[in-house]
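G., before I forget:
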Amino acid sequence: MKSERYDRQSFLGDGSQDKIETTTVGVVGAGGGGSHIVQQLSHVGFLKTVVFDEDHVSESNLNRNVGSRAKDVVNKLAKVLVAKRIMRDLHPGIRPVVYNGKWEKHPEALRRCDIIVSCVDSFPARRDLEAEARRNLIPLIDIGIDVHPNENGPPSLVGQVILSMPGHACMQCMGFLSDENLAKEGQRYGDAAGPRPQVVWPNGIVASFAVDLVVDLVTDWTGKIRGPVYLSYDGNRRTVSQNNRLLVAPAKCEHYPLESAGAPIFRPL
Amino acid sequence: MRGAPSMEIPNDQIEELKALCPGAAAAEEGGKPFFLLPLLHVSDAAQPTQTDALLCPGARDGYESRLFFSRRVEGPKPLNWNAVGVRILNREWFAHSWRVRKGLRLAQMIGEHLTAFRA
Amino acid sequence: MIGLRIPAGLYARIEADLDRPHAFAGERVGFLFTRPDECGTPTNIILAVDYWPVPDDQYVKDYSVGARIGSEAIRGAMQKSLDGSRGAFHVHKHHCHGKPGYSGDDWDGWNRLLPSFRKFLPEVCHGAVVLSLNSAAGLVWREGRKRPLPLDKISVVGFPMRIFNHEK
């Protein structure tokens, strides 16, 4: 299988395909972003992808969830089963591991991942997932897309791709997560503001950058990832560029010291 | 006692907390302090009447402070459990939506959170 | 699958330390301190949080082996293990490429050393890690088991990321 299917990606370096095939990537969220991630990882040859999502396919997902079919809505198919189908269509011999539930219900499965790709849809969810990744010394790549209304013009379509590496700046250090935006979302959900706008193409863009990072972390083919990554997508200008916040982020994480990895230490008062 | 980089907690509040909850312990996650309150007495009108709880004394997700429980607790009033199965410090926690005032001492914070379970 | 994760900065410290020459020992030795991912359950992911190089004056002259450390070094490592309820992993390096093997001297040393650690602090895992020029392998002694288990994966977490995968 290896010799012909992956001929065109031999530029990734000697032994790269072995590394790809034996790396366990956890994908949390199998919706608009996660479905792209699963599809691309499968094409590249990742055989040990683990997928977590508690939701099933609905009509409003069909505008963006890669691999979902009209029949899946009728059958109320779990999104992770769409992911499983994608993976098995490309690799009939494998037994994909998927969890039809929140990752919080399967922490031991998440813990075994070498890299986590976060495709969750809220700031608190990102914070909680990053905390778990940091506790277990797992690099996390977060992606997301948002559409902000503008009073005097078209809405702003924005997104991010963030590599959060244990020991290095976290999403709080980078200013992406803050008490302010966590509070705003808490309020938002409290106000039942309704579904967020979401479309397929920006999901594909940020997902592709995330897969790029996964492949480079695993193979080090560019030799260039030597620090955290924070890319901002501007859908109106059609650009992806480094977010300047990275320039002022601390070199060492201020929120998750490496010494606090592992089971939490509770100090009696 | 230091809480976390962003929060210093005076010793007298810690002593009050110890008196209120024997066995209380402190930990940090994401730069925020948390206090584990083993078998906190919730209320005689609650089911269960006591359970492990986790106090987040600082701002979290739009609340001035939050009190998490190791399981959903039924009380005399219907509550909006809007944090269900969240994972903090390697455990699963549940919290209902309940706003308390700013600037409370730790023991007061707990007391105000628990008013949700009084008849 | 049992995995050990070592932050890249810590791994670089280990490599730099083990590469230093010693006045009489052919190899250097250090101890990696670890924490479990969960308390009270059989741990499958072990997280390295600190490294302690054995001080130069705590080696014993013994030209029949690559390195021999004295009782002071062992006591020092045990104390550091106890101080944070951390597992201790004996670390040294073989100057070869690929997955390092374990010599007879390695086994003799571990069989002398590890039982003491296990008795001293039985509730955490202790073990051994051997580095090579481009890989690493290791063993873990778990509570209740006489024989060690291999570390299926050793991951260096950071920039660059390296995963030494030995899963069958």
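Chain C touches chain A at residues 1, 3, 5, 7-10, 34-39, 44-45, 47, 49-50, 153, 155, 157-161, 163, 165, 167 (CB under 8 Å). The domain at 3-165 of chain C is CATH 3.40.140 (Cytidine Deaminase; domain 2).

More on Monday.
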